[in-house]
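In this section we walk through a basic example: taking a raw amino acid sequence and producing a predicted 3D structure, encoded as discrete structure tokens. The instruction is simple. Fold the sequence below.
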Amino acid sequence: MMAKKKGLSNPIILFLVIIGLAGAGAYYFWQSDNLQEKVQKMISPPLDQPKTAEDQEKGAYEIKEEETTKQPEVAAPEGQQIEEPQPQEDPYAQMEKEMAEYFSYLDGREYIRKLLQKTDSYSRFKKVIRKLAASPPTPSGESMVKGGIARNATHFYRVLGRDDLFLIKEIISKERKSLEFDLKMFYRWATLGDSYPNPENIRPKSDVVYRYAGFLLDTIGGRAYLFRRPVAIRLLVSYYCVLIVHDAEKAGKNTYGIDLLPSIKILKEEIGNYPEFKFTQEYVDQLNIIEDYYEQNRH
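The resulting token sequence is shown next.
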């Protein structure tokens, strides 16, 4: 894991951040299905079948041919060693490993141990994610729905109880310095897509992720949350929301017709002028690509 875990800074990033926390343990269960059966197949040779005289003759020929065609092993030059190719780790497995390390880190923090005396961080955040996923906000056109603006304005407070919000506030207060790294990791996890393993159904469906992104980008209530946050959080959360809605647009799933161009133009300028990000150029380059996509498709 990272040298020092650093943190996040407001309840509005719950959906992009805390959903990542809630999936850390999932990876370690989904691969175990039918493990015993798979191992048995690997170590158990097939039962011998009676062989005919033709089979025996053919087998003897194949063995002899193998012996004559086998290539001699090539020794490495003196003083050198032949390096064997290393298996590449599954990116999904690596991401789940990073998130598991994040959980382990949180559980080792004194303030977390005091707040979660009867459970662990993974179990607690799993409950938080299920609450959020069960009650997604209206992502666009809230003024067209009776009471829509008021419901969006109080969304996180209605969906999550006081204890959950206090826990999140404490994490925000204690973990401050790796916002960019953490959000990137959690964004990757949240946007894996519905085809990836999700045995405990912790990771929300892609439509739910899209609804939260649209809520924060395109509603009065969502934008009000963002503008009450520190600038760094507002900009980064907005950036990842743009990526999420853009992915939905490309997949033909921008069901609320959210227009990203106005957000992109403003966001690109603000991120470019913000002096404290480590990956400013990466953000700006990605926003330029997305902006070009929509401008070209409008002509």
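Looking at the output, two observations stand out. Residues 1-14, 17-51, 53-71 have pLDDT under 50 and may be disordered. The radius of gyration is 26 Å. In the next section we compare this with other chains.
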